[in-house]
Amino acid sequence: MSCTVVVGAQWGDEGKGKIVDSLAAAADVVARYQGGPNAGHSVIHRGETLVLHLVPSGILNPGCRCLIGNGVVIDLAKLRAEVDQLESRGIDARAQLGVSSSAHLILPYHRVVEACSESGPDAIGTTGRGIGFSYRDKVARSGLRIADLYDREWFESRVDRNLSRLRLEFPEAAAPLADMNGAALFAELQPLVEWLRPLVCDVSLELFDALGAGRRVLLEGAQGTLLDVDHGTYPYVTSSPASAAGAPLGVGLGPSVVTEVVGVTKAYATRVGNGPFPSEMPEDEAARLREAGEEYGATTGRPRRCGWLDLPALRYAARVNGLTRLVVTKLDVLDEFDEILVAVGYEIDGRAVEGFPSSTRQLERAKPVWRSFPGWKSSTESVRTWAALPAPAREYLEWIEREVGVPIARVSVGAGRDAEVPRG
Q1: Which of 207, 194, 235, 208 has its CA nearest to residue 363?
Q2: Average of pLDDT values for 86-100?
Q3: Is 41 considered catalytic here?
Q4: Alpha-carbon distance 109 to 224, whole Å?
Q5: What are the pLDDT digits (tens) for 204-248?
Q6: Helices marked H in 220-282 — which ranges?
Q7: What is the DSSP string of 71-122?
Q8: Which of 68, 139, 252, 383 has the fewest CB atoms below 10 angstroms from its CB?
Q9: How far apart are CA 367 and CA 99, in angstroms?
Q10: Rounded distance, CA 331 to CA 97, Å?
Q11: Which of 13, 21, 28, 75 is catalytic?
């Protein structure tokens, strides 16, 4: 039995899509366990970059079964558009794809009220796609799931009840919500519901049977550990468990099935949206790194905030996830820097701080303690062996490995599927 979890070890955007795409070559099943169409995983197919939002990143490997688990929230229109995009490029996505009947739906009213909630001074900085409010309904036990699409009476009554509540809670959204009702929404969704019907399955049972038969399973998350609803920089987090513990939960398996947890981290750090970011660079330095690394959101196009690697945060991610291996991405982005900095600790009000503070207010006041490394000033893009890496780059990576206490399995040195350096 082999069940590997791939998890982001930072604030998301670590390059998990490429890593899952690579690891999926040796997997029989890839399942997505949380998040929604707010995340974008970029993979290269025949020289073209494809951005996957809901479909697991293993879809480019023919014969790999790809499942969307119960922990994911789904916008049906976006799912169909994504599948159509893949099929227009010769990828038989429908033949490979299965969708959990227990996954929750993102409905039009979720997007309306999320836009209202993000318009004030307390905005989290979400993508505005309704993900947070779909999860809110899930936890409040008022959500609707894929299975509910096939029970008209139940679906319409639940929608009407939810709309009545939201009109009271969000009077500023009264106009767009007034035009919505359960019957109209059910009718509007019918073409998508029938399109989806052959894909609906019991993901939990399918994965259980696959593991029992000795098949290799890969569980893929979205966002990253520091955006996890429990373990991230709360409240500036996503609305689901993005850490490794959320993986078996989000596909309907017990935690004992997980045999390996692979953490993905950039050689530096980025963040999208609001919230603390202790190792953030001044904007002039950040602009240079942003352009070198093409650090713009795959889903929104928003420029990412850029900073140096944060060692306390990475150690925290290793502990929270129980990482067994580490993958470092975008090493090549640092090729032209004279000096590489790493935040090795924090000070708050002039006093050293242990570990990674759980208080967001403390983290906002944290000043990094820096360690400097010499840059290697040579291209790593064509490097394919560990020994061929420039000595300063190799020393930088080996230092990270020692300090985090997790072995580095591979290093990514470009966007291409083959642009990787295995450890050894």
Answers
A1: 235
A2: 94
A3: yes
A4: 27
A5: 999 999 999 999 999 999 899 999 999 999 999 999 999 999 999
A6: 246-249
A7: TBEE-HHHHHHHHHHHHHTT--HHHHEEEETTPEEP-HHHHHHHHHHTSSTT
A8: 139
A9: 45
A10: 33
A11: 13
Give the total residue count for the chain: 424
- Specify the residue for token string 């399109």: 195
Catalytic residue list contains 335: no
The residue that leads in pLDDT, 124 or 138, is 138
The Cα–Cα gap between 220 and 63 comes to 17
Q: Tens of pLDDT along 367-411?
A: 999 999 999 999 999 999 999 999 999 999 999 999 999 999 999
pLDDT number for residue 126: 60
Place of tokens 């899509």: 17
Rounded-to-integer distance, Cα 326 and Cα 217, Å: 18
Q: Which residues contact 153 (CB under 8 A, 6 or more apart)?
A: none
Question: In the beta sheet, which residues pair with residue 305?
Answer: 271
List the structure tokens of 63. 């014969």
Q: Are 366 and 360 in contact (CB under 8 A)?
A: no
Catalytic residue among 21, 41, 137, 228: 41
- Other CB atoms closer than 10 Å to residue 418's CB: what's the count? 9
For residues 306 and 286, is the Cβ–Cβ distance under 8 A? yes
User: What gap in Å lies between CA 114 and CA 306, rounded to an integer?
Assistant: 26
In the chain, what are the helix, strand and coil shares in percent, each to the nearest 5? Answer: 40, 20, 40
Maximum Cα–Cα distance across the chain? 66
pTM, full prediction:
0.92
Contact 207, 56 (CB under 8 A): no
Plot region of 368 (φ>0 → left; ψ -120 to 50 → alpha; else → beta): beta
The CA distance from 391 to 411, in Å, is 15
Phi and psi based region of residue 243 (left: phi greater than 0; alpha: psi -120 to 50; beta: remaining) = beta
Residues with Cβ within 8 Å of residue 230, at least 6 apart in sequence: 241, 243
- Cα–Cα distance for residue pair 19/37, rounded to 1 Å: 19
Tokens at 140, concatenated: 């409040």
